[in-house]
Structure formats: structure tokens, C-alpha cells
């Protein structure tokens, strides 16, 4: 296959699209609809151009090009990781058979469903973030927002290519629906609940890119293992871009905590509202909300559907190749989170049925790394406060814990007590209003809002005060 992207084509790609004229025409007819969606549901802040990273090939070296680009002219395209002609299926009942280059008929519906769900999340986050540019704390942050947005648009293209190329008329119809659903719409909302939540401020954005995009990393990681090779290669390349989105979240929260710590120390007080910073208590509430909503994205603790996906070879585990078992799991078991005698506990189930729990635990361990990082900032400042991940049972609306309420520590409480105390643990209208009041735009080169610290370094070797965005 061609490794470098073909930029002479209307749709940049490295899948030799010109050799399949029917597919090329179908995608070219979808392209104007995509651009109309971008114009109507994408970023609202008018810009001339943005210093963006664009994929130019998928090799290990030099896969991205940086330059100022008008966003509407961004080179959205179709890029799959390089094909391994000897790749074998790594798990399930087809383990060690050659990877599939076409969709097996018996798995067609399941594969299509998984691709549609993944595809639906990509434009959803663009829609959730469309108004954030108007309140960006710096040009550096504005550029990062737009980089996330255009790459989510490219990830939509990645899934649409698979639907068009491998799923016929049904695939084309599903690709159209990806543009017709909208985040938060009453009539046609996005498929997954977290992608219908508002992202009204930059603290929410940083939490979303840390916690919810991290869910995306783990979902893509399971699909990267898929026996369906084009899906595997698509997700492998998407993961390269997804890492930047999580970097934006990780370092964004770093900088919010860092600025709050500076204000606390300069004024010898925990009461930072009067000084225009975000209290640690408020940061914790936002963390609690975004983490718990993101845990729901992993589904129920047990799932026969996911067991069937694994056995079929459609969807593997995170880091499947590093697992030290038989990669079939037919006789294995796992302890899954459950309500046991009215408390948070565990039940033993077949390992295949508990794969959602396996994946969620990988995610939780990863999330803890960020919390440890933010706590180092507090510790190095000599402060006793610490941020914490709440209990896996806290504020859950999907799975075993959806029928109970707990404190962040995991203590089961009555619904009445939850109603009385939830404002201690989740953002209240007062908290949200205060955070929004800080969201005053700073669009001048080299300047930054007072509630967040500047980054330690700029983009691609450029300084923080580089003109990352030219506003219209």
C-alpha cells in the first residue's frame, strides 16, 4: 500500500482511493455534507488561520506537518497505519488465523455497530466544544482546542471511510446519520450520554480531554486488536492523534492547579475566589463529575455482548499482546464490581463476561497517574490538600451501581441524603457560575488569563508568545 498521503486528491488518503472510483465518488458526495456540518456545528469563533498539525504520512518518522491553515481548508483525510501482510488474529476462537481484510458476513452487524458508536463520539465532542473559542485563556490554548477539533473531525472521516468501503448501502446511510445527530439534541441526540453533556467552560474542557478522551483511548485500544484489519489499522493511527487530546487535558489541569497553588501561597489563604483563581474544592467537584460520567462509558460490569465480541475476534482487550494467558479465556474468571449485601463489593464471574470491568480497571489505573501528578504540584508547594478519584460506585448511572447512591468514599447512602449532600461533591450552579465568570477571553499574543498558569513550553518548539491563531 502507499505510505505517504496523496494530497493531489480531493480527499487526502493513503488507501489508494483513486483505484476505487465508486468509493471515491461516494465519499466525495459525503464531503460537502461534512463541510456543511463543520460550518454549522463546528467552532464558532471566526479565524483566518491556525497553527495546526496535519498528517502527511503514517510512518514512524515525520508523520505530521505544522503550519498556519484556514480551518475550513484543513486536509481532512483517510489514513490507516501500515499494513502487516503477515498479521494474525491475536485472540478468541479465530486466534492465529490470518487477519480479515473483508468483513465476515456473520459479524457484519456487530462490526458496523461498533464503528457507528465510535464514529458518533467524534463529531459530538466538536459540537460540545464549539463555543469555547470565545473564552480561550490564551492563543496557545485556543490553538490546542482547534487542533483537538480538527482531529476529531478527521476521526469521523476514519470511521466514515470504513462504513462506506465495507458496509454497502447500510454503511452509507449510517455515515449520513453521523452528521444528523447532534450533541444535546432532544430529537436526535448522540448515542452515548457523556457526549450530550455541555462543555461550557475551559475547566470542563480540560476535564473532558483528560477523562472522556482517555475513555476514547481505551476503546480505540480494544478495536486496534480487532481481527478486521482495516479497523485495527485505522484505530492504531487514531491513537497517535488521541494522545495529544489527553496531553491537552493533563497539562491543562496541571496549570489550573498550579495557578491556584500560586494564589494560595501568595495570599496565605485557601479562599482564592477573591483573587480570581479556582478553589481546589471546585476542581475536585469537576473531577468527580467528569470521572464518574466517563466510567459509565465502559458500560455494565458484565456483558454477554462484549464476551461475544471477544470470542469472535471483533474487539480485544487493552494491550492484548502483553497478556500472559491463552487469549481465549474460556475457563477463566474475574471479580467484578457489584452491590453485595447493600455495600460496594465484588462478584466472581466468567472472565469473558467481565471484560468491561477489565477495561475499566485499566482506565482507572491510568486516570490515577494524572491525579498523582496534580498532587505532586500540591506536595511540592508544601500544601496538605490532595485531589482524589472518587469511588467506582459514585454518581453512576450505568451498570451495577446505577440503582444506589454513594459518597465519594464509596459509602452507600439514602437517596434523601444524596439530594441533600450532592452539592458538596458535584459542581453546583454557584460553582458553575463562578467558573464561567472567569472565562474572559485573552486573545492577545503572549498574555494569559489569571486563573491558569502558562504552559512550560509551546507547540513544536515555538515559544508561548507565538501567534498560534490569527483571528478574523
Automatic annotation (TrEMBL):
Q: Which superkingdom is the protein from?
A: Bacteria
A GO MF label: oxidoreductase activity
Q: Which GO terms describe its cellular component?
A: cytosol
Write the Enzyme Commission number(s) for this entry.
Answer: 1.14.13.208
Alphabetically sorted, this entry's keywords are:
Oxidoreductase
| PANTHER family associated with the record | 1,2-PHENYLACETYL-COA EPOXIDASE, SUBUNIT C (PTHR30458:SF0), PHENYLACETIC ACID DEGRADATION PROTEIN PAA (PTHR30458)
Protein name as it appears in the record: Benzoyl-CoA 2,3-epoxidase subunit BoxB
Amino acid at each position: 500500500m502507499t505510505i505517504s498521503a496523496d494530497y493531489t486528491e480531493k480527499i487526502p488518503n493513503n488507501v489508494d482511493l483513486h483505484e476505487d472510483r465508486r468509493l471515491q465518488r461516494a465519499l466525495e458526495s459525503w464531503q460537502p455534507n461534512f463541510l456543511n456540518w463543520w460550518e454549522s456545528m463546528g467552532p464558532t469563533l471566526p479565524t483566518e488561520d491556525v497553527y495546526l498539525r496535519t498528517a502527511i504520512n503514517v510512518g514512524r518518522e515525520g508523520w505530521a506537518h505544522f503550519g498556519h491553515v484556514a480551518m475550513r481548508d484543513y486536509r481532512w483525510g483517510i489514513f490507516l497505519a501500515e499494513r502487516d501482510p503477515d498479521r494474525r488474529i491475536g485472540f478468541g476462537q479465530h486466534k492465529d488465523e490470518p487477519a480479515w481484510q473483508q468483513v465476515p458476513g456473520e459479524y457484519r452487524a456487530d462490526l458496523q455497530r461498533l464503528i457507528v458508536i465510535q464514529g458518533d463520539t467524534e463529531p459530538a465532542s466538536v459540537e460540545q466544544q464549539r463555543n469555547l473559542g470565545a473564552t480561550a485563556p490564551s492563543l496557545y490554548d485556543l490553538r490546542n482546542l482547534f487542533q483537538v477539533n480538527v482531529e476529531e473531525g478527521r476521526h469521523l472521516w476514519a470511521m466514515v471511510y470504513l462504513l462506506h468501503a465495507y458496509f454497502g448501502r447500510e454503511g452509507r446511510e449510517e455515515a449520513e446519520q453521523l452528521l444528523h445527530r447532534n450533541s444535546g439534541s432532544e430529537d436526535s441526540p448522540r448515542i452515548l450520554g457523556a457526549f450530550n453533556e455541555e462543555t461550557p467552560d475551559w475547566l470542563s474542557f480540560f476535564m473532558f480531554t483528560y477523562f472522556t478522551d482517555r475513555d476514547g483511548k481505551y476503546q480505540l485500544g480494544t478495536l486496534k486488536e480487532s481481527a478486521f484489519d482495516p479497523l485495527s489499522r485505522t484505530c492504531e493511527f487514531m491513537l497517535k492523534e488521541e494522545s495529544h487530546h489527553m496531553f491537552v487535558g493533563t497539562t491543562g489541569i496541571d496549570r489550573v492547579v498550579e495557578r491556584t497553588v500560586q494564589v494560595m501561597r501568595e495570599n496565605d489563604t485557601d479562599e482564592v475566589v477573591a483573587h480570581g483563581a479556582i478553589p481546589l474544592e471546585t476542581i475536585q467537584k469537576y473531577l468527580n463529575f467528569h470521572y464518574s460520567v466517563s466510567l459509565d462509558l465502559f458500560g455494565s460490569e458484565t456483558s454477554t455482548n462484549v464476551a461475544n465480541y471477544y470470542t469472535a475476534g471483533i474487539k480485544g482487550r487493552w494491550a492484548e499482546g502483553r497478556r500472559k494467558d491463552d487469549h481465549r479465556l474460556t475457563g477463566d474468571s474475574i471479580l467484578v464490581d457489584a452491590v453485595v449485601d447493600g455495600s460496594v463489593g465484588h462478584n466472581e464471574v466468567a472472565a469473558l463476561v467481565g471484560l468491561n470491568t477489565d477495561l475499566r480497571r485499566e482506565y482507572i489505573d491510568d486516570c490515577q497517574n494524572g491525579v498523582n501528578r496534580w498532587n505532586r504540584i500540591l506536595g511540592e508547594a508544601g500544601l496538605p490538600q490532595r485531589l482524589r478519584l472518587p469511588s467506582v460506585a459514585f454518581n453512576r448511572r450505568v451498570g451495577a451501581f446505577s440503582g444506589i447512591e454513594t459518597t465519594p468514599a464509596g459509602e452507600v447512602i439514602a437517596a434523601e441524603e444524596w439530594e441533600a449532600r450532592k452539592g458538596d461533591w458535584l459542581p453546583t450552579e454557584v460553582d458553575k457560575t463562578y467558573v464561567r465568570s472567569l472565562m474572559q477571553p485573552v486573545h492577545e499574543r503572549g498574555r494569559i488569563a489569571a486563573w491558569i498558569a502558562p504552559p512550560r513550553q509551546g507547540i513544536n518548539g515555538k515559544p508561548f508568545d507565538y501567534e498560534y491563531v490569527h483571528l478574523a
